[in-house]
Amino acid sequence: MRRMGPEWLADAVFYQIYPQSFNDSNGDGVGDIPGIISKLDYVQSLGVDALWLNPCFESPFNDAGYDVADYRKVAKRYGTNRDLKRLFTEAHKRGMKVCLDLVVGHTSIEHKWFKESSKANANAYSDYYIWTDDWTADAGNLNTIRGMAGRNGNFVTNFFWSQPALNYGFAKPDPQKPWQLGVHHPSCQAVLQEMIDVMQFWLDLGCDGFRVDMAYCLVKNDPACKQTSKIWRGVRKMLDAEYPQAALIAEWNNPAEAIQAGFHADFMINFDCITDPGCLNDGKCRDPFAYSNGEPFFSKAGKGDVHGFLDTYLDHYHQSCKAGYIALPTGNHDIIRLGQGRTAAELELVFAFLLTMPGVPFIYYGDEIGMDHRHNIPTVEGGYTRTGARTPMQWSPAKNAGFSTAHPSKLYTPVDPDKARVCVADQEDDDHSLLNRVRALVALRKGHKALGGDGHFEVLYAEPGQCPLVYLRKRGRERILIAINPATQPAEAIFASEDIRPGEVLMGSRVDLAEKGPKYHITVPGSAYAVIKV
Ligand code: BGC
Ligand code: MG
């Protein structure tokens, strides 16, 4: 139907690994790459096709590695470049791809480019970052840091103070501010070339693509990201020509824009909560499914309104579905865990939804067993409230949940002390465990092209404030209807559709689906879903 790009992405399901917290092989309390390798059979057993690893490069870890000091070197605590190469090989042996995290917009202050750039004497790196030309200068809407460098100027930052923005130029440099360079300035072009070299370095070592951190932020004062998009289209051209099977996945949170900019996929993460900085601080509403006024659709209360999600989703879907994919994650290292306040049965409904939607689903490590969010634990490496979603993977009831042999005080973050905490070992042999239901849902998706990334998507019933949600997926002659009712009460939907023939329930509960005149009626029991061949 579509697009050039990596064929494998069309039906891919990703698993995100936060390397600090997945599996510690050497007992230092921090997860590492050999630890990940030794759990690849587990990852493969989920049925997923690809891994995304958060940054694993040399870093002072002021922002958990999103402050890179050397793009070409694996941080010691995770192992060596050789280990990472072995991870690529071992994953490939098991039919899985590995995507790295490319932090393209900023480095750490420890990066050698920045150290050079900070010097008073002009050198090749002076304009690799955005510096005002006097320490009293006004940088307008940009954040700057004063008083840290030998040169007479302030540097622009992208996120934390210690993440100086790399210089990709300004869309329309202000003539009154000669320090604002145009995008074609040789230094801005050199920075871009550095990043392309970094991508090629890892692709040549066997990596399969990148999740690009804050991909929208390259060019400054760039309305509608026009110039930034131009840069990415250039990068995509290079990939199409030289690495056609490499995936380019944006953290842009605007699929319509990101896919237009050349990305194969972009995340859509609870828009309200990501863009409203209040939500990031008040501890509320960061649940990826807390759409519309903080009331999650996926809740027993049945109070959420799926339109808070669906209207934005459909808008982006229709704008982007011919050229790329929307990636829906169960969560990630920046947001509250899905498991917070939800039972395994409730979580299964969320997975049933995610794994039957178009695009590329991402499962955040631990969500497949329903790990809980840990509030009020000490911040680690700039995690702050995000730290609670970054706790050690819970493998077994053993010491440190089987994550590490280190003394508990040495762990990256404390393990959830709850005696009833979930773990992989407890769920392995139970067919009804969340882990095994997730495996079954992934297998269901993989077994039915209509459920894959490219399958057509059509909403059949989604009334404001009502359950159930009913939608149709289609590919070729295959048609699959999905009905989800998170509320405890049974819910009925009446909808029109082209000719569908109620068939076998592939997964979920028995439901009543019947044709009555020109309409179909479906009744879904409380807290239930059904995936039905039609
Ligand atoms: C990452 C964050 C990180 C920030 C700055 C993001 O959006 O996901 O974890 O702190 O970029 O690099
Ligand atoms: Mg370790």
Short account of what is shown:
With about 525 residues, the chain is an alpha/beta fold.
Largest sheet: 8 strands, parallel, barrel
Write the CATH fold name of the largest domain.
TIM Barrel
CATH superfamily of the largest domain: Glycosidases
DSSP E strands, number = 20
Secondary structure elements and their pairing?
Blueprint: E1 14-17, H1 33-38, H2 40-45, E2 50-53, E3 57-58, E4 70-74, H3 81-93, E5 97-103, H4 112-117, E6 143-145, E7 155-157, H5 186-204, E8 209-213, H6 226-242, E9 247-250, H7 255-260, E10 265-267, H8 271-275, H9 277-281, H10 307-320, E11 325-329, H11 344-354, E12 360-364, H12 424-428, H13 434-447, E13 456-461, E14 469-475, E15 478-485, E16 491-495, E17 505-508, E18 512-516, E19 519-524, E20 528-533
Helix pairs in contact: 11-13
Bound molecules: beta-D-glucopyranose and magnesium ion (MG).
Question: Mind explaining what this structure looks like?
Answer:
The chain is an alpha/beta fold and 534 residues long. The chain folds into three domains: 7-104 and 187-446, TIM Barrel; 106-165, Alpha-Beta Complex (Oligo-1,6-glucosidase, domain 2), CATH 3.90.400.10; 457-533, Sandwich (Immunoglobulin-like). It is 24% helix and 18% strand. The strands form five sheets. The chain has an eight-stranded parallel β-barrel. It has a five-stranded antiparallel sheet with strand order 13-14-15-20-17, covered by helices on one side. Helix 7 links the parallel strand 9 and strand 10. The protein is globular. The relative contact order is 0.11. The chain binds beta-D-glucopyranose and magnesium ion. The site of beta-D-glucopyranose has 9 residues, from loops.
